[in-house]
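To the team - adenosine-5'-triphosphate complex, inputs and output below.
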Amino acid sequence: MSAELMQEPTKDKFAVVGRNISKSFDKLHVLQDLSVHIPRGVTYCLLGPNGSGKTTLMRMIMGLVKLDSGEIYVLDEPLDRISLVYPRLGYMPQQRPLYPDLTVQENLEFYAGLYGIRGQERARKIAEVLQIVDLSQTQNRVTGMLSGGMYQRISLACTLINNPDLLLLDEPTVGIDPVTKQSFWGYFRELAKNGKTVIITTHIMEEAERCDMVGFMRNGIMLAESSPDELKKFAGLKKRLQMKVEDPEHEMAKLVAEGLEVSRVGDQLVIEVTEAGKMRDILDTVMPVDFNVIEPTLEDAFLKLAI
Ligand SMILES: Nc1ncnc2c1ncn2[C@@H]1O[C@H](COP(=O)(O)OP(=O)(O)OP(=O)(O)O)[C@@H](O)[C@H]1O
Ligand SMILES: [Mg+2]
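Output:
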């Protein structure tokens, strides 16, 4: 693929391109002929059930796990030359990545040192990233004694120290309070607007829904890469018409006689509908006391695709 994918105009277009990636740990097939295409300047959510291979894929993109077969390009460099782009990457692992006995300041200095950031520049960057995560006052606290959410915020601060072009954030918002979460997402969107690429994993559907793109993984396979709305279509989800009726049994019988699939919850009837015209016909037939059109959610798509 190198020749094909590295040709203009693909170059500079993707932050990550991977094809035919397979990986087994002993006899466990963790990734199976997986492909991934992550454009630059987007927020991209890796979504999938526990154990579907999201962390393994992220670790591969960082060059931390070897592929059995296939290839990955990161910022247009193949994995065997990944050291060339390391200074432009930021990785926040799922497992607790900081030294617990060091202070927050010392952890940040350690990360800065990895990227050769020293002196006044280091002091400036540390102050900047602490401000982004709104924890400037924790500088001298021992990292292992921080609360779970604060720890996550400092981990993110460390990941941002080198102003990376490509961020890989493995469940960065676990344990984060809603206000801070909101500000993190504002920041991620801002990064993408400025041309940075943010790859993120989360099990919170509202967060996945905010991403430009979702890559849905199941059993080590990439089922789909698309916008959240496209993913709902891919899962075959339709709008549902929910109607409150006076005589549910009678109305249900009428609809079933028309060949419609209807479900009933108390005095509510629910039908999947695709066309607006069909919806009008149903409403004319049933004349409900009240009705609601329910849009499919990403959670519905997850539940459908995860099995
Ligand atoms: N180093 C390893 N040795 C053996 N098995 C591993 C190793 N790393 C990952 N696995 C296995 O690979 C599978 C995928 O794990 P991975 O951590 O990539 O999943 P995930 O999608 O990130 O899950 P989660 O949502 O729970 O974080 C799991 O069955 C896991 O136990
Ligand atoms: Mg994981």
